[in-house]
Structure prediction request, 487 residues.
Amino acid sequence: MIYLDNAATTAIKPDSVKEALCQAVMRNDLGNPGRGAHESSLHALQEIEATRTALADFFGANDSQVAFTANATMSLNLLLQALLQEGDHVITSCSEHNSVLRPLYKLEAEGVALSFLPLQEDSFHLDLDSLEQLLRPNTKAVVISQASNVTGEVVDLSVCSDFCRAHDLLLIVDAAQSAGVFPIDIEEDAIDALCFTGHKSLYGPGGTGGIVLGRRMAEVPLRSVFSGGSGTKSFDKVHPQEMPAFFEAGTANVLGLIGLHAGLRYLNQIGMSEVETKLRKLMRRFYEGVNTLPGVKIYGDFSDPQARRTPIVALNIADIPAAVVSDVLASEYDIATRPGAHCSPLMHLALGTEKQGIVRFSFSTMNTEADIDTAINALAEITQELS
Amino acid sequence: MARLNIPDFMLASFDTTHDAIRAEQASDTAGIKARLIPTPETVKSGCGLSLRMAPEVATDIARILEKEAVTVSHWTLSATIDGVRQFIAQESPLMKEDEK
Prediction:
C-alpha cells in the first residue's frame, strides 16, 4: 500500500521508532513510574522524564511545563475546561477540528461565548483582520489550529500573538497538524499553551500527546478537571495543582512515550528545516502533477512555492463524491487517502464541500517520490476515464 | 535484622517526581553517590521519591541542586537514636554553610 493519509496518523514509522518500541516491550523492567523506588519503577520514570525533556527542547519550553496526555483531543479538552468558565468569551475559527469545536460547544452550553474567524473571501486563508471586530470586554483567549487539517493552510501565529499580547489574551494553539512538520518554539512564537499529539508528524505511537505551557501560564488560575493517582501527595483530597502533575493522573503510557522519544530523535537527527524541505518537495511534486488534470479542483493556496504549509493536497474530481474517489484509489490502486469531512464541519461548510467531501492526500518523510508519482498516475487514469 | 542496621543518611525530598529524577541525574553527573528511595511517610513532601545520600555529601548535593534549579521541599536526617530509627527535619545544608 502507498500510504498517503499521514495527516490522520503516520502509519509507517521510522525504523528507529519501531526498534525502540520493540525493545521497550521486551525489557521486562519498566514498572509504574513515580510509584516506588525500586529499579523497575525508576527505569520507567527515567524514560518518561527523558521524553519530557526532549519534548521541552523540541518546543522551546521549560521541561516542568510539559504534561503528557493521550492525544491532542484530550489535551484540548483538559486545557479548555481548566481555563474557561461561565462568562468568558473565546475567539476561535472556522478551520477548527472537532477536537477544538466540541469541547468549546460543551463550554458554550455552560455559558462560555464563542466567536469564529471566517475565511477571507475567495481564499483559503483565515481572515485574521476580523480579530479586532470579534474582541469583547470578556474575551479570554484565542483558540486556534496552527494548520488546517483539511487544506494544510498555516495560520500566521505572529498576527494572533500580537493581538493577544495587545489585549492581554491567552493564545491556545492546536498543533496536531503542525508539530513535527516545521519548527515550533512556544516562547519565540508567543504561544501560551500548545496542544499536540504524538502519532502524526512526531512519528510516535498512538496514545501519546501533551500540553506545553508557556511562561505566562504560570500566573493563570486553572480549574482542576482531572484527578486521580499521582504518586504524590497521596493524603490530599485534591489532585496536585502543579505542572506537570496537574494534567497527569493515572499510570503514564511508558511504552508509548519511549516510542515518542524515538520519533523526536528521528526528527532531530534529520533536522526540522530539512524535514520541512522534504515534505514541501513531496507535496509540491504531487500538486504540480495533479493540478492541471481535467476536472481536478484543489482546495488550498499553492501560489507561493516557498510558503509554509503542512504537507496536504486536498482535492475533488468534478462532482464525484470524495468517498468514491478515495475508495477507487484504495481498492484499484492500493493508495490510502482520507475522504469525507475530516472532523472539520465548519471548514467544509466554508468551502461548500459538506455534501461532496474532499479527498485529502497527506505526506510524511517516509514517502518517496515514487509514491507521489504512482498517486499522480492513478489520478490521471481516473480523470481520463471521466473525459 | 542486620540489614536494617543502616547508617545515618540524609534525605532530600521534592514536590514533584520530575524534580526527584532531575536531582538523581544531577548527582550522578557530578559523580556523587546518591540514590532515590521511597519517601518515608513521616516526611510530608509531595513526592513519593527522595534522594538518599551520606550526610557528608549533603552540602555538595545541595549546592548542585541549587545550581540546577531543582527545588528541595524538605531536608531530613535519618538516624538511629536510642535504638529507634528517626527522621529529623533539617534546614538546608546551604543554610548551615551560610552560618559558618
Observations:
- Chain A touches chain B at residues 33-37, 42, 45-46, 49, 52, 63-64, 231-234, 240, 242, 244-245 (CB under 8 Å).
- The two ends of chain A are 27 Å apart (CA to CA).
- Chain A has two domains: 2-11+272-386, 15-268.
